[in-house]
Design a protein that fits this description.
Layout lengths: L3 E4 L5 H13 L4 E3 L6 E5 L3 H11 L8 E3 L4 H6 L5 H10 L4 E6 L6 H4 L4 E5 L4 H10 L3 E2 L14 H8 L5 E4 L10 E4 L6 E4 L5 H8 L4 E2 L22 E6 L2 H15 L5 E5 L1 H4 L7 E3 L4 H17 L4 E5 L6 H12 L2 E4 L1
Parallel strand pairs: 1-8, 2-8, 4-6, 5-9, 10-11, 12-15, 12-16, 13-14, 13-15
Antiparallel strand pairs: 2-3, 3-7, 4-7, 5-6, 9-10
Helix pairs in contact: 1-6, 11-12
The structure holds threonylcarbamoyladenylate and magnesium ion.
The site of threonylcarbamoyladenylate has 28 residues, from strand 5, strand 6 and strand 10.
């Protein structure tokens, strides 16, 4: 199959979004941009198309998909009941990078929810995603558009790296603004729980819901979210995450680089200001702060792989606000973690 690349920055935008919507309605898979990462979409009401998602990604069948909606009205049809908290969250964070887990309705097939009685729903905020969802006229089930186990795609080129020739089309909407996947919040428990941290932070959710919110810890046995038990986001290179004060991180990087460089290609991923201390090393800039680090992280992993780096020394950040999501993804990719 030849994967069509549908641009959205030029005068063909409308035509290309319509073409993508048509493919989805026909049961094909189309990758599309969201503000978090690119998604791999299928019509939620077409079980054959949904099964294709699992096949193409190599995704374990027990890992359910997020359903993307154009309007909050569509949620009434997908969920059995809407808790009061849902209304509060929708008013404040939707559309946006927040996914909410609710009890599912009969309308949702077992393929989408991997046999669970719940469903994850999100209303993305990216203009191309919104236009596509509106044009398609049906909710779209979509995981991140990467091969299972690879870092999520934040550019159309990443989608093609993993899925070229395996899907009907990718809508190219440029790089994603946020760069890590949405916050997943489970509202089916007695107390809401963050299953996956993201750009809607624990602090913001606690403020809006006026309650303490737990963050699920990664567990391999009976995790609250099936996705938690799978190793994720890992580049081919070994990733060593170093956490601590910046000065100590630099010393640790120097030491590690010196001891490993004879046998392996060692690269550094860190914020811009630290990179000039490593002039003769393959480096990738995470930008100026924790928000840009989140935006750049997955591109950095892929860029280091393209440069055949064997070991990535990666700067850790404080785990507050967006730092919680950033460090969650970094640790999932890490083979080793050091505190200095
Ligand atoms: O930002 C995002 O969320 C992106 C874009 C495309 O929307 N999507 C995404 O999907 O990251 P995916 O499939 O890569 O991650 C979905 C996560 C998985 O960890 C999955 O286990 C969890 O959400 N999930 C889905 N349905 C669930 C459910 N009913 N209960 C608990 N966790 C669920
Ligand atoms: Mg994913």
């Amino acid at each position: 199959m030849k994967t069509r690349i549908l641009k959205t920055k030029d005068r063909n935008r409308r035509r290309n979004i319509k073409a993508a919507a048509r493919l989805l309605r026909k049961g094909e898979l189309v990758a599309f941009p969201t503000e978090t990462v690119y998604g791999l979409g299928a019509n939620v009401f077409d079980p054959r198309a949904v099964r294709k998602i699992f096949r193409v990604k190599g995704r374990p069948a027990d890992n359910p998909l997020i359903v993307h909606v154009w309007s909050i009205d569509q949620v009434h049809f997908l969920a059995r009941s809407l808790p009061v908290m849902f209304g509060v969250l929708a008013a404040r964070f939707m559309p946006g990078p927040l996914t909410v887990v609710l009890r599912k309705s009969e309308a949702v097939s077992k393929e989408v929810s991997s046999g669970l009685s719940t469903i994850a729903i999100r209303q993305p905020d990216h203009p191309v995603a919104r236009a596509l969802l509106k044009e398609a006229g049906v909710p779209i089930a979509a995981p991140s558009a990467n091969l299972s186990g690879k870092p999520s795609p934040t550019k159309a080129a990443h989608v093609l790296e993993d899925l070229d020739g395996k899907i009907a089309a990718v809508l190219d909407g440029g790089p994603c603004r946020i760069g890590v996947e949405s916050t997943v919040l489970d509202l089916t428990r007695r107390r809401p729980m963050i299953l996956r941290p993201g750009a809607v932070t624990q602090e913001e959710l606690e403020e809006v819901l006026e309650t303490r919110i737990a963050v699920a810890r990664n567990r391999r046995v009976r995790p609250p979210s099936p996705g938690m038990k799978y190793a994720h986001y890992a580049p081919k290179a070994e990733v060593i995450v170093v956490e601590g004060k910046k000065g100590e991180i630099v010393s640790a990087f120097r030491h590690l680089h010196r001891t490993m460089k004879r046998s392996r290609i060692v690269g550094v991923m860190a914020e811009e200001s630290l990179l000039r201390l490593f002039p003769s090393v393959p480096t990738f800039s995470l930008g100026r702060d924790v928000v840009s680090a989140a935006r750049n992280l997955f591109e950095g992993f892929r860029a280091m792989d393209r440069r055949n780096v064997n070991v990535i020394l990666c700067q850790g950040f404080p785990e507050e606000q967006m730092g919680l999501a950033l460090m969650n993804r970094m640790r999932k990719a890490a083979t080793r973690r050091l505190r200095v």
